[in-house]
TrEMBL record, chains A, B:
This is Transcriptional regulator, LacI family. Keywords: DNA-binding, Transcription, Transcription regulation. Residues 2-56 form the HTH lacI-type domain. The keyword Chaperone does not apply. GO terms for molecular function: DNA-binding transcription factor activity; transcription cis-regulatory region binding. SMART domains: HTH_LACI.
Length: 337, 337
C-alpha cells in the first residue's frame, strides 16, 4: 500500500508538506502543490480517509433522516439537499426511519458514532424533545417539520398562512359545508393546517363540525385518504368541499367521490397540499399549495453547512414562499345540484 | 471527555479488559463484564466508534446505491434491505445517484474511504465494467439489475421468463398487433424484457415491427410513457395491445389512450410490470408482473452479509419467483370494435 511517505519521496518534499496539501491547510507554493498532486496520481495514492478524518474530526458526510423516502413529497427536497451538498464536497446519505421514532434515534446515533458531521431531519414530531440532546452536541437542521420550542434552525413554508389562502378561496366559491382530511401524525404542519382550517371557518361564522374533520394515516397514504373521504361523504348532510392536507389524500378523496358517483368538481370541491408530480397526472388536475421543495432542501443544507463551520449569525427560522395553484378539482358551489 | 482508562479505573479492571468487553472479543468473566458495563453507564462513556472501527476495520454501515429513490418500485426493496440489516446490527444508508454514472462512482468511493463495509447496487447499467474495480476489493451485491459478465452476486427475478408469460397471455387473447414501450436505459431487465417481447412474437410467426417499439425515458416516467403511447396510438395501423416494461409507463399509456378517446381494455389492452402500489389505485386496475420486492431486498442484504463475513459458498445468482397478475387493463381482442 502506498503511504504518505512514498508520495513525499516521489514529490521530493516533506511528509508535512504532503499533509498540508491533502488537508488544504497552511501555505504551500502552487508549484509544490502541483508536484504533490502529480506524485499522488502517479502512485495512485489513496489517503486513508478514516484515519485522516479522525484526525480532522470530520467525515464530509451529512445524514438526511427521513420517515418514508418513497413519499413523492420528498423527491425534490432530497435532490435539493444532495445537489447543494455535492457543491460543498459533502455526500448526503439518507437514513430511512419508516416513521418510527426509535429508528429516528438510531439514525441520530450515527452522529455520536462520528459517521456524519451533521443531520437534516425531515419529519420530527412536534413533541420530540429528545432531539435537543443531539442538537446540543451536533449540527442539526429541521426541514419542513420541527420540534416546537427548541432552538434548532429550521426551514419551511408558512403552513398556517397557506391554509388560510386555500380556505378563503373555498369559502369565496360559496361553500359552507367544508370538511377537512387531516392526519393522525404529530407534525407541526398537520397542526397548523388544522388550526388554519378551524380559524378561517370561525372568522366567517361557520360552525366547526366534528363530523367534518376526518383523519388519514400518519403517512398520508392514498388508501387512508380514500377511507377518510368515504366516511365524510357517506354522511346524510355531506360536505360540498374537502380541504385535504396532502395531495395523496386529495387523490384518495377524488377516487372515493368517483366511486360514490359524485363528480369532482361539480358535486364536490377537493383541494390538496404540496403539489407533487401526480397532481397533474389525472383529471381533474388538483388545486393545491405548491411548496418550493427543491429550495427547501438547498437552504437546509446551506444552513447545516454554516452550522458545521461554526459560522456566526446562523439563520434560525427560514420561511420560504409557497404558491397557491387553482386547477380543476375546485369549483363554485352554484354548479352543485 | 470520558476515556477508556477512566472506565477501567471505575470498574477496577485493566484497559485491555474494557477493550475486550467493548469489542466482544476474548474471554471476560460475566461479573467483570457487568462491572464494566455499569462503569460505562455511570460515566456515560461513549466509545469513539471511528477510532474503534478503524482498528476493527469495520463501520457496521452498508450503502444502498440507488438511481431514483422516489420511484415507488424501490419502496419495498429498501424496506427489505433496511429491516434485514437492522437485524444484523447494520445501518443501511442510501446514496441517491439520480441515475448519473459519475455519482454512482462517487457513491462507491465511500467504500474506499471506509465509510461503509459493503454496498448493494440497485441499478447498474449492463455494461458498467468499472464496477469490477470495486467488486474486486469490497463486498458488493447487485439487486434487480446487474453488470453482464462480472462475477458479482446478484438477486433478481427471471425477467425473460416473466415477459414470455405476459406475451403468451396477450397473444392468447387474440391480439396480433402488439406494441411495446421499452426504456432508453441500459438495464439488463430492459434488455431481457425487449428480447422476451420479440422472441414470443417470432415464435408465433408475428412480425416484429419497428413502429410498434417505442421508448420511454431512462427513469420510466409517467410523462415519457404517455408520450411514447401517443406515438404508438397515433399511427394509422395502431396496435390493439401494449406491453409496457413498467407500471408507471403503463399508467401513462392508459392516460394517453383515454385522452385519445380509446377505452382500456375494450379498445386497447395495456400491461405493466413490477406491481407498485398504484396499479390498484385507479380503474382500470393494471394487469402486471408482481416482483417480490421486499424479499429481493432481504436476500440482497443476506448475501452481502455473507460476503462481508467472508463466508464460503456465497450464492452468486439468486432468482426469486415473480407472479403474473391479471386485472382489468387487458381483454380479448373480440371485445374490440
Amino acid at each position: 500500500m502506498v503511504k504518505i511517505a512514498d508520495v513525499a519521496r516521489e514529490a521530493n518534499v516533506s511528509v508535512a508538506t504532503v499533509s498540508r496539501v491533502l488537508n488544504k491547510k497552511g501555505s504551500v507554493r502552487p508549484e509544490t502543490c502541483e508536484r504533490v498532486y502529480k506524485a499522488i496520481e502517479k502512485l495512485s495514492f489513496e489517503p486513508n480517509m478514516s484515519a485522516r478524518n479522525l484526525r480532522r474530526n470530520e467525515t464530509r458526510v451529512i445524514l438526511i433522516v427521513a420517515p418514508n423516502i418513497t413519499n413523492p413529497y420528498y423527491a425534490h427536497i432530497l435532490a435539493g439537499i444532495g445537489d447543494e451538498a455535492r457543491k460543498s464536497g459533502y455526500s448526503a446519505l439518507i437514513y430511512n426511519t419508516g416513521g418510527d421514532e426509535e429508528r429516528e434515534k438510531n439514525g441520530m446515533d450515527m452522529l455520536k458514532k462520528r459517521r456524519a458531521d451533521g443531520a437534516i431531519l425531515l419529519a420530527s414530531n412536534i413533541d420530540s424533545m429528545w432531539v435537543k440532546e443531539y442538537a446540543d452536541k451536533y449540527p442539526i437542521v429541521h426541514c419542513s417539520e420541527y420540534v416546537k420550542g427548541l432552538d434548532i434552525p429550521r426551514v419551511s413554508i408558512d403552513n398556517y398562512k397557506a391554509t388560510l389562502e386555500v380556505m378563503e378561496y373555498i369559502i369565496s366559491l360559496g361553500h359552507k359545508k367544508i370538511a377537512t382530511i387531516s392526519s393522525s401524525n404529530s407534525y407541526i404542519s398537520t397542526l397548523l393546517r388544522l388550526k388554519g382550517y378551524k380559524d378561517t371557518l370561525e372568522r366567517h361564522g361557520i360552525e366547526v363540525r366534528k363530523d367534518y374533520i376526518a383523519l388519514a394515516g400518519a403517512e398520508y397514504s392514498f388508501k387512508s385518504g380514500k377511507a377518510a373521504a368515504f366516511k365524510l361523504l357517506q354522511q346524510k348532510d355531506r360536505p360540498t368541499a374537502i380541504f385535504c392536507i396532502s395531495d395523496t389524500i386529495a387523490l384518495g378523496a377524488i377516487t372515493a367521490a368517483k366511486e360514490m358517483g359524485l363528480r369532482v368538481p361539480e358535486d364536490l370541491t377537493v383541494t390538496g397540499f404540496d403539489d407533487v408530480d401526480y397532481t397533474t397526472m389525472f383529471h381533474p388536475y388538483i388545486t393545491t399549495v405548491a411548496q418550493p421543495c427543491y429550495d427547501l432542501g438547498r437552504k437546509s443544507f446551506k444552513i447545516l453547512h454554516a452550522c458545521m463551520n461554526k459560522t456566526n449569525d446562523i439563520e434560525k427560522k427560514v420561511v420560504l414562499p409557497h404558491k397557491f395553484i387553482i386547477r380543476e378539482s375546485s369549483a363554485p358551489i352554484s354548479t352543485c345540484d
